Amino acid sequence: MAHDDVHLSYLPLPHVFERCIQMAAMTVGAKIGFYQGDTLKILEDLQALRPTIFPSVPRLLNRIHDRLKAQVAEAGGLKATLFARAYATKLAGLRAGTNTHPLWDRLLFNKIKG
């Protein structure tokens, strides 16, 4: 974490993980933005704040994953096929130690990141 990082705070302050992240952010002078208070709107908050770091918990990551899968399923057809191919390629790259892909990042994953 560095002074130019931005953190979206959405966990309850009594949550030990959130306290550690906020203390680290304050220690280096990073910015902390707070969510609207509605966990169903966290994706909107992410798009508005555009955090550079996003420490999270499995529950929220599962919610994001499920929403993304539902959108892909709803799109169907060619979009769903392309997403499945992109996802498989990206996953194979991650397992091989590469976290970027010149085609799929540009066409798909950078849009998901916002």
TrEMBL record:
Q: GO terms for CC?
A: endoplasmic reticulum; membrane
Name one molecular function that GO assigns to this entry: ATP binding
Q: Which Pfam families match?
A: AMP-binding (PF00501)
Top-rank taxon, per record: Eukaryota
- Entry keywords, A to Z: ATP-binding, Nucleotide-binding
Q: Which InterPro entries match?
A: AMP-dep_synth/lig_dom, ANL_N_sf
Q: Which SUPFAM superfamilies match?
A: Acetyl-CoA synthetase-like (SSF56801)
Q: Which PANTHER family match?
A: AMP-BINDING DOMAIN-CONTAINING PROTEIN-RELATED, LONG-CHAIN-FATTY-ACID--COA LIGASE
Q: What is this protein called?
A: AMP-dependent synthetase/ligase domain-containing protein
